[in-house]
């Protein structure tokens, strides 16, 4: 992807995100706080002296909230795209979960319930690699249930035949 396609704001926010997360920014902020604390006796610990640090930290915190949210949104979107690519590329993965981040909270809870069910079904399988999707796990579980039900019925019939003879 070309860097020239980025807007000035995009370039600035990328730079600001990298800088504010660096050790240089932390050291700089620490030095500012130390300088402010050391200057306390010079300003006789006045209300104005206290107001300077309070106002500065409030403004910086306010702006950082938006910067952090922008960076988080961008990272989240990139991760979602990567996960969608992995799901789409894997032949045994369920494509139903591509772009699920657009679902409502209620729909996500329902999907979460299905994956809890998948986990329960997988625990019942001897081999954890036999189930690759909710549908496959359900089919495997239904097959095993019917198979063992049939075997049990055959066993009961043989037992009944032995009683009759």
Automatic annotation (TrEMBL):
Keyword field: Membrane, Transmembrane, Transmembrane helix
Domain of life the protein comes from: Bacteria
Segments passing through the bilayer: 21-43, 49-68
A GO BP entry: transmembrane transport
Record-given protein name: Low affinity iron permease family protein
Organism: Chryseobacterium kwangjuense
